[in-house]
Design goal:
Layout: E1 4-10, H1 25-31, H2 37-51, E2 58-64, H3 73-88, E3 94-99, H4 106-114, E4 119-125, H5 129-134, H6 141-153, E5 157-164, H7 171-184, E6 188-193, E7 196-197, H8 201-208, H9 216-232, E8 236-240, E9 253-254, H10 263-288, E10 298-304, H11 309-313, H12 318-326, E11 330-336, E12 346-348
Parallel strand pairs: 1-2, 2-3, 3-4, 4-5, 5-6, 6-8, 10-11
Antiparallel strand pairs: 7-9, 10-12
Helix pairs in contact: 2-3, 7-9, 9-10
Length: 349
């Protein structure tokens, strides 16, 4: 059963005057109606009846869609005061917002604490200064480290968002960003392969030949390596890849293969395949060296918990097909083991 629910409040991008090459915020903002404090109340009231009484551990109001701390302070407070009322009444548990690293200071954080904010996600995107500059982020990595440290000093939960395949990026730079992230030790993270969308400078760069998007294979591989680094460090990865409803639709993107509606599963399926194959090869090596090894078809069982079963099978059966092709002389059955933790797999003979 799902234990965590989010009430999303989408704020127009008016809080961000910057023009990052990958963002079409001006077009998006032009299509959005202004949001007022009473709108926040209306949205929360719409969601709460569907969430209460379901045994949820956490109900969270999350402000998405812009650089929250860049909007005028009075406007921030009009939103936060409504959310805080529901939190004070015990109807929600957490208040969550997203912003830029250069829109964090002590005055801002003191105000957020006053309104009982719990989680701040920073759109870091990369820890490499050449990538930040090429993407026109408007700041360098120094402010990222300072802002993360400041947020944690206020005892606020920190999230870090990283993008893969930005201008000037390489696999090594993306993996470096993941390693820098674990040094900071946020509690949550998001991993987003770069997608080219309409009305952006990145699209112009693509048409000029100044930017080459990642292939799907490249995007999955790099994201997989970053995921493993973060997951091993105990950082909860709450999103991998964009949903079409986040800021674009599938027809509005030049993706180069990086957009996929099940991108997270592509990544987690690859991780599952690696774990399963490593165990299988170890067992096969042991069996081949055994004196009583029977050269007839061998039977092995792959196990996961119910949540990760689809990752073990692979997107559209990709892992099953892989093992049939690569190991035609063995028979594999797939089963569920509720005692296994998420992203843990067993291979048994």
């Amino acid at each position: 059963m799902k234990k965590h629910a989010i009430i999303p409040i989408f704020i127009p991008h008016e809080g961000c005057p910057n023009d990052c090459v990958f963002c079409n915020q001006k077009k998006i903002t032009a299509r959005q109606n202004p949001v007022y404090g009473e709108d926040v109340k209306t949205i929360i009231e719409q969601y709460l009846p569907t969430l209460t009484g379901r045994g949820l551990e956490t109900i969270e109001v999350a402000f998405f869609g812009g650089s929250f701390t860049g909007i005028p302070i009075a406007q921030q407070n009009s939103y936060l005061s409504v959310a805080k009322q529901y939190k004070d009444q015990g109807l929600i548990d957490k208040i969550h917002l997203s912003t830029r690293p250069d829109y964090i200071n002590e005055e801002i954080l003191s105000n957020l604490k006053k309104y009982s904010v719990d989680i701040i996600e920073l759109g870091v995107q990369s820890f490499d200064d050449t990538v930040l500059h090429a993407s026109n982020r408007g700041h360098n990595s120094e402010i990222v480290y300072k802002s993360c440290e400041l947020i944690q000093s206020y005892a606020l939960e920190l999230g870090i968002q990283l993008m893969i395949g930005l201008p000037g990026d390489t696999r090594e730079k993306s993996i470096y960003s993941a390693k820098e992230t674990i040094k900071i030790a946020p509690s949550i993270a998001r991993l987003y392969p770069t997608i080219i969308i309409e009305d952006t400078e990145l699209l112009n760069m693509y048409h000029r030949g100044d930017y080459k998007p990642l292939s799907q294979e490249e995007a999955v591989f790099t994201t997989k390596e970053m995921y493993k680094i973060l997951d091993h460090a105990g950082i909860k990865i709450i999103r991998v890849g964009l949903k079409s409803t986040d800021i674009i639709n599938e027809n509005g993107a030049v993706t180069g293969g990086t957009y996929h509606p099940s991108f997270r599963q592509l990544v987690e399926s690859q991780i599952a395949r690696e774990a399963l194959e490593a165990q299988l090869q170890s067992l096969l090596a042991t069996d081949l060296n055994s004196d009583d090894f029977n050269r007839e078809i061998q039977h092995y069982s792959f196990e996961s918990n119910e949540k990760c079963f689809s990752n073990m099978i692979g997107n559209k059966g990709s892992n099953k097909n892989y093992f049939i092709k690569m190991y035609p002389d063995i028979k594999i059955t797939y089963s569920k083991n509720r005692s296994l933790a998420d992203n843990h797999y067993n291979v048994l003979k």
